[in-house]
Amino acid sequence: MPDLHENIYPACSVAERIITLGGLDRTELLQRLHQHSIHLNTYAELLLNDARMVLSPTRYSLCTVELAAHNLGFPDGATTARIFATAQQLGLTLCPLELAPYLRMQYTDQLEDVDGKLRKNQAPSGSVTVASDPISQDDTFPKGFYVLHMNGELWLRGYCADDLHCWNAEDRFIFVKEVVRGDHM
Predict the structure, then answer these.
(1) Domain count, the chain
(2) Which of 100, 107, 121, 127 is most enclosed, with most CB atoms within 10 A?
(3) Taxonomically, which superkingdom (predicted)?
């Protein structure tokens, strides 16, 4: 009989990445995204230009893990609050919002979305959502970012979702595992 916990973090296969972030002001960060040919949607632009998005003046590195909702024990999916709370109970932490643009610039080998379609009220196939606290409780303001490789282009996209939104079991998230010492960029 299979172990019911064999695909639950930490007893599952995960993608770990060391991401170095910080040290750029808003203008420099936007220029760097442009230099890396990163595409932004309107929601990402809103988040990146909002003064509530804190940018660290100093560089630091984080070890992140990428997990699907089912790796957190949700074979039928779950709300954002349940996914985030369970990850935190398992020793993971939410990402600073500023991690997303740095992740996008450093995660250039993301597998491409094979169907190339954006789905209304669902995370796109192949996307990875950066688990972070929202800077606004307004449901019409973007809650956070996701990264996507679609039609040969790397995207940093913002998304809106209310508290009732249920993520699918296969939807993927990035959490922080630990702070890393040293500069890895």
Answers:
(1) 1
(2) 100
(3) Bacteria
